[in-house]
Design brief:
The protein is of the alpha+beta class. The protein folds into four domains: 328 residues, TIM Barrel, CATH 3.20.20.80; 166 residues, Jelly Rolls (Sandwich), CATH 2.60.120; 135 residues, Sandwich (Jelly Rolls), CATH 2.60.120; 126 residues, Rhamnose-binding lectin domain (RBL) (Jelly Rolls). Helices cover 19% and strands 32% of the residues. It has an eight-stranded parallel beta barrel with strand order 4-5-6-7-8-9-10-12, surrounded by four helices. Strands 24, 25, 26, 27, 28, 29, 30 and 31 form an eight-stranded antiparallel sheet that branches. Strand 6, helix 5 and strand 7 form a beta-alpha-beta unit. Helix 1 packs across helix 4 and helix 7 runs parallel beside helix 8. The N terminus is likely disordered.
Length: 887
Amino acid sequence: MADFRRVLEFLVLTAILQMAICAEFFKPFNVSYDHRALIIDGKRRMLISSGIHYPRATPDMWPDLIAKSKEGGADVIQTYAFWNGHEPIRGQYNFEGRYDIVKFVKLVGSAGLYFHLRIGPYVCAEWNFGGFPVWLRDVPGIEFRTDNEPFKVEMQRFVKKMVDLMQQEMLFSWQGGPIILLQIENEYGNIESKYGQRGKEYIKWAARMAHALGAGVPWVMCKQTDAPEDIIDACNGYYCDGFKPNSYKKPALWTEDWNGWYTTWGGRVPHRPVEDNAFAVARFFQRGGSFHNYYMYFGGTNFGRTSGGPFYITSYDYDAPLDEYGLLSQPKWGHLKDLHAAIKLCEPALVAVDDAPEYINLGPKQEAHVYRGSSHTEDLSSSLSGDEICSAFLANIDEHNSASVKFLGQVYSLPPWSVSILPDCKNVAFNTAKVGAQISIKTAELGSSCFSNITEPGYQLLREDRLISTTWVTSKEPIGEWGENNFTAQGILEHLNVTKDTSDYLWYVCRIHISDEDSSYWETSQVYPKLIIGSIRDVVRIFVNGQLAGSVVGRWVPVEQPVQLVQGYNELAILSATVGLQNYGAFLEKDGAGFKGQVKLTGLKSGEIDLSMSLWSYQVGLKGEFMKIYSLEEHDSAVWIDLQQDSISTSFTWYKTFFDAPSGKDPVALDLGSMGKGQAWVNGHNIGRYWSLVAPKGGCQKTCDYRGAYNSDKCTTNCGETTQRWYHIPRAWLRPSNNLLVLFEETGGNPLEISILLHSTTTICAQVSESHYPPLHLWSHPDIVNRKRSISDLPPEMHLRCDDGQIISSVTFASYGTPQGGCQEFSQGKCHAPTSLSVVSEACQGRNECTIRVSNKIFGDPCQRVAKTLAVEAKCQSSSAMNAAWL
């Protein structure tokens, strides 16, 4: 009894400490809104939100992602709640590991940030089945996302579960927690018309249901122009500056700023220029916006089989400010950080204006929006001009030409497709098209303790004075039935009805008898049999008597496959494989997978045979999956043999090896460019599907012009290259040595060329001119606040930074003057300060980050009356590696 009491006291103390984590930063406060903004603790706020999906990272990554979001200027972290991750089996909940959403919310609160929880429970998100659990399809009489009682019962049960959980953990703002905003449904307006009046009734019901749960914070519906009066409708898109909510009583919220886009297998990789992204955000706040969220700020990884689509790749990098591995993507992260700082300088004026800002036409495609008001608070803007505060946004929406405009008696130069932000209506703090942030060049390099480029089994490779020995073993996966949980049924069964999405794979097996007459008929008529299937999705592989006859890939595409049959009985085995379930659109419950239409055999003397109602044997999944031979506990349960040179690149094969973790803290990637299609596991963790499809050779741009409206095909890369070659292995899933790597290969590949790589920033570059704006942090300097100095008198600064755990090992180029070229192609111009390299090296070398003022006082004046620029290129290296080298 005493032991139980001690355990109980420990649990109570732990709960109190967990609540104190949030309470340390948040006393209970209320959240409401008016027509201008969210009102937090009685004050209007202009808010920047960072989209991070907790299951797309490991829990050990969460604190760093949150910290980098906050450093980048975020006030809020936003995420969906992933129903199929939290309730994989009806009534059995999972809130552990990557799905420990309570821990994630508490970490956000402990960082002093707010939280926006988008419960949905439909999420889209390029996530498997749009976040719905597949068991939902089996509820009798169910129709998703409409006025359907079975669906509403299940939806309400999950939404209530999430709201109750957050309330029990004291995570709502009025409880002292970080949650300030919730979302019900998601982009339903895109498909509402498909459901007619039932769709309209469903939205009204969803709103009533959400409010009845008593969460105590506002609810949002995005892309929902008919959102009820007590729900804030919000915008999603590349641009939302023209968005107006459906009621004057509601503020303008931007729940998804698509700062990147997703990628499909065999597709090009989209990128969105940061100049355009910054332009869109600045225009949103310029024209009355008040809450903005990046979708995504960190995209992460679709571990396991969580990727939707179909055909979305495992990486969900999304060209986000934080890349898939959690590293800063520069210049996107740094330029947006500066944008956020400039917007924050304007916040007192933005929240003081009750109605629309003052609009001033500055030209045919140029305009200003001015926010004026009065303030009784001691802030930067009020100190600049007594009690009056004033901030302005000057926009040039011309896609091609710069413009010189006159505003309040001063002349300003505006690059094309840009916005200048003037926190004091006088001095420019930021222009969206002028990037002063560094550029980071990342590479994937061989780790110091791994395997790579093995040419023979057991080949020993000496790398960095460490002996590495790698031996691959293999195990064949049976074709067709393998004897566990198989069954026989009349006719073709729908794929998901059989697998329940417990595996990508489903075998359909039947026997076909070929008579003597059929064999003779083929010889004389030269007409040969074909297997015809009405349509399939996503992948089908057809085997006859154990031999592969052909494969088809597509979304509901017809199949017409010649097959070689022999006299007597033939075994026809068809493998249906999914590559992520549909995540978007109406009537998801009806989409399904596998086959549709008739299945028949043609080319017989008697005509054709309808196989649709034949007797078929069904086998769910792979034998290796069932035995869990990818796990640390069960990998020896398979019959493994040494990989022989002549058995390389075989299909339907399992491969296994062990490797040591690369030293250091840099993120780890697995290079699977030599493989075909399959899945990979490390120490039992499924790191995702892999598929070495190559993007089209054409369609990529040599240079990316940020000017003009963006679309996902505008600035693409990777033409003619494998869409995804590197796969993230989280450090938390690795041991120092003897890590188990298992792959299932469908089509054939060469595991001997697999390598373990370190993903890191190796080269950083920056260019800052004398005319660039002074650093934003100096706007709050006492001399500026007290008007002893003008912000325009301060020199600009260059800031350089390597990844955490790295230092600037060398400065390979530095020139203050008129340098030419760009990153990795810099050269000195006619004007060059000879002190450039020594000044920068002294300030930066051996440090993780450094700051250099860009002025003649620092470098000397190499050429008077010439506008000068500082250009720098430097190398980053792991500090531990540097220390080892010095030793």
